[in-house]
Each structure stands twice: as structure tokens, then as C-alpha cells.
Amino acid sequence: MSVPLPRRRLLGAAAATAAAAALTTATPAAAATRSADVIIVGGGLAGLTAARAVVAAGRSALVLEARDRVGGRVLNLPLPDGGWTEGGGEFIGPTQDRIRALAAELGVATFPTYNAGKNLLYKDGKRTPYATDGLLGAVPPVDLAGLANAATVQATLDNLAKQVPVNAPWTAAKAQEWDRTTFDSWLCLNAPVPSARFLFDVATTSIFSAEPRELSLLYVLFYIASAGNESTPGTFERLTDTGSGAQATRFTGGSGLIPQRLAAALGERVVLNAPVDRISYGGGTATVTAAGLTATGRRVIVALPPALAARVDYDPLLPAARDQLTQRMPMGAVAKAIAVYPTPFWRSSGLNGQVVSDTGAVRSTFDNSPPDGSCGALMGFLEADEVRRLDGAAESEVRAAVLADYVRYFGAQAAQPTAFLLQRWDNERFSRGGPVGYAPPGVLTQYGPALRTPVGPLHWAGTETSDYWNGYMDGAVRSGERAAREVLAAL
Ligand SMILES: Cc1cc2nc3c(=O)[nH]c(=O)nc-3n(C[C@H](O)[C@H](O)[C@H](O)COP(=O)(O)OP(=O)(O)OC[C@H]3O[C@@H](n4cnc5c(N)ncnc54)[C@H](O)[C@@H]3O)c2cc1C
What we know:
Blueprint: H1 13-21, E1 33-41, H2 45-56, E2 61-64, E3 76-78, E4 84-86, H3 97-105, E5 110-112, E6 118-123, E7 126-130, H4 144-161, H5 175-179, H6 183-190, H7 194-208, H8 217-226, H9 236-240, E8 249-251, H10 257-266, E9 270-271, E10 276-282, E11 285-290, E12 293-302, H11 306-309, E13 313-315, H12 320-326, E14 334-341, E15 351-357, E16 362-367, E17 376-383, H13 385-389, H14 395-410, E18 419-424, H15 443-447, E19 458-460, H16 473-490
Parallel strand pairs: 1-2, 1-12, 2-9, 6-15, 10-13, 12-19
Antiparallel strand pairs: 3-4, 5-8, 6-7, 10-11, 11-12, 14-17, 14-18, 15-16, 16-17
Flavin-adenine dinucleotide (FAD) binds near residues 66, 72, 276, 334 and 430.
Protein name: Flavin monoamine oxidase family protein
Pfam families: Amino_oxidase
Family: Belongs to the flavin monoamine oxidase family.
């Protein structure tokens, strides 16, 4: 589709293009052999951060990345005019200190997510714009009984989360009780008012891209505790909020610039098109094979989500606890749909582009326009049961469903975008879903310690192994830094 958008459109295309051009990563030659102190499996934020830290400490590192690009769940998507938008991880917020610091070191600037004007609640067929600067903040104005119930539930979740140590949630005093409970059954007891239940259902799918019935209560409490840093306890609101929460800020040029710049600095230490299929280890070394490349190292950092780490063949077999952990942490089901328009037309109706809805393929949206508003971009999430319902649907069907939702929310103008981008993470061979590999009941208490415990020379990174901001870009960076500290201490 051709789109008459001016240059300088979404998110500083020029900067993004320059960084991509600087990427001098290698592709494995047939039957090639490489060696390094540390072999890193996976060139997402976790793996690249780990490599950067290893190299900074004067050790050699080699990153093997399966795709023909770095970044994993972080991905800049090109627009027809040469601009960019983001198909994966995008927002950052307060207490996400490590991704913020990394971006600053790499010269990637930030700007506030568009948040001026009213949010939109779409419920029971009714469309209600609402201001977010009142007493309720961004909480959608459901009935009073629902609001009262929701306030109690939120306070209770925050209090229970304070009892969960982020580095070992399985040691919480009530870990067993909470880990045999789904979040759904807990909500059935604690959020009996239907409108309150609606608020937590929509928040849950927005945060995890999974339904409450799929999640362990212990895992949800851990995730809330994890939404903070060493000096600021996590809260439920910080997970859901835009203005002062995890969706507050975006990156100029797109989040994809961060992995691109990390890889550019690592140069030939990053090998693309290298899907690792086997890791053999023992006797103080490890051998990693990928598409005809054999890499040997003294340490290996596997920087993959558990579900992907499970697809690698380990020789000798990993301890059962680690192997079975990776059989039990599925990825959420998520897609992002971005519709581009000549202008952010909803702004002139006093709307900020953010929707909370009880109906449709897309039930939460954001204004993803570039910082100068030179065109309009509406980004919607398709999550959990809603995206599963569209499994196997043609892109044209998904597009029709998404645009029907956008028309219900923002009016007839939304029907005719100049570009439409769909990024389905459940169809990606090297992601299999997103945003995070989550823990169903019984996993953290039985297998949690295997998340990070090294096995011989093998160390584990990836956002799923992080204490703070688990599931987020910040958690990925933290995990890479932690794994690098581990291997450097061991070398
Ligand atoms: C739709 C969506 C929206 C999101 N929104 C946000 C957000 O707004 N803010 C936020 O902070 N986070 C967000 N996230 C989450 C964030 O993107 C992730 O937490 C983060 O990018 C994970 O990084 P990682 O390095 O741990 O894993 P990954 O990015 O998954 O990296 C793993 C890498 O390993 C590669 N790989 C896989 N298998 C192999 C193999 N066998 N051999 C070699 N390489 C392999 C993959 O290709 C990938 O590059 C979102 C994610 C998604 C999908």
C-alpha cells in the first residue's frame, strides 16, 4: 500500500536508518568455527546487554541470534514513507532505571507518551469519554459499587505483593497457598461486583496477554512486586498507568534503536541467522552449534524465554527441575495492530487515543503518533482469548475486525487508514508469543529456583529471569547485566 506521508514521520526515521546501516553483524559461513570466553544464545536486549558487559570487562563474547535481525521482542516496523513504528516492546516508565540508563548511554532520547485529553471507556455498548485528572486518575468510571470493590482489590493486591520477595517469590510465607490458586479464582472471591471484575480482567490481559484463569496468584503478586526497584516497592497501578506508570515514555526513533545500536557496537561478535540447536557442556567448556557454526566457550549465557530455551537440545540433559521449568512457562498470546492516518484526528475531539473496552478484538489502544503529531497512529493490542480467536485468520480478516473496533471507539474516520501494520507474536518462530513467558499455578513453588541457577557453565538470562520489571525491557537489561556479572565472576 502506498502512503503519502511526509518524511520525518514516525519516530526519527533517519536516526533509525543510520543505526541499522552501522550494523556489521556476521552470518555464519558453512562449517565455520568460532570461540570466545562467553557464548551468548539470543540477540534480544538481554543477550546483547550481557555481551556488552562481558566485552566492557575485557573478555570476549559471541552472540548467536536465530533471526536475520537483533532485538527479539523489540522491533521497529518500517512505514511506507520511511518512518518507523514499534511492533513489540515500546513503553518505559518510572523505576525502569536500567533500560533508561542504557538508552541514554546509546544516545537514544525519550519523549512522553501522548496522554493529553480524555480516555475512553467502551462498556455495555456505551462509549464514555472520561478525564484522568480527577480523584480516580485513569481508573475507568464504572458504577460506584464497582469502583469501591476495585479500590479494595487493588489495595489488597499491593499489600499481598509486599510479602513476595522479588528474587525468590517461592519463599513467601504464603507461597504454597497462593501458587495453588489461579488469579481467576482469587478474583471470583475478591472482585464479586461485575464492573470491578471487568476492570481486573481487562487489566490482566493488558499486562500479561493471558487470561486470569491461566495465571498463578503467586506469579501475579510477584509481577506486581517486580514493578518497582530496589528503593520503590512495586504497585499494580505502576503496571497499568500511562502518565506515571509503565506506559509513560517512549523512545525517539523507536525502541528498536536500542538493540540495533548495541549490535552495531558489538560488530562481528553478533552472528545473525544462527539458530542454536544444541549445547554440549562439560570439562570446563561448552560447544554451541547453530546452522553449521560451531562455537566454543568457557561459559554460555542462554538469553531466551523459557519456552524457547526448551527447544534447544542440551548434552548432557539439564537437571530435571530446569528442563521441566521450561516445559511449564508458556508465552502469552499477543499481536499489535497499528493503523496510520494523515492526522491524529481523535485529538481534536479531546481524546488521548486510550481505550478500555469490554468488546472486540482490540480492547486497549494507545496513540502511537510521532512526537510532533505529523501523522496519526492508533495502536491496539489483540490479547489472550481475543487473538486466539483469530488464530489462522487472514490478515484481511484481522484488519477488518480491528478497524471495526477503531470505528466504534473513534468514529467513521478510523475506517480508512493510510497504512495498517499487524505484528502477530504468536506466529513468530523465535518468540512463539509475548510479551512474557508466565507462570501458571504450581510452577514457581516447584521449579522457581531453576529460573536462574546456573548448570555447570550454563547461565540463564532473559526478562523472565529478572527480579525487577520481569517481563519488560528493563527486566531484560537487568537480566543481561546479572548474567554477565555471574560469568565474569566465574571466568
Ligand atoms: C507486543 C509486545 C508488547 C510489549 N510491550 C512492552 C512495553 O511496552 N514495554 C516493555 O518494557 N516491554 C514490552 N514488551 C516486552 C519486551 O519486549 C520484552 O520483555 C523484552 O524485549 C525481552 O527481551 P529478551 O532479550 O529477554 O528476550 P527476546 O527479546 O525474546 O530475545 C530472545 C532472542 O533470542 C532469539 N532466539 C530464539 N531462539 C533462538 C535460538 N534457538 N538460537 C538463537 N537465538 C534464538 C530470538 O530471535 C530473540 O532475538 C512487549 C512485548 C511484546 C511482544
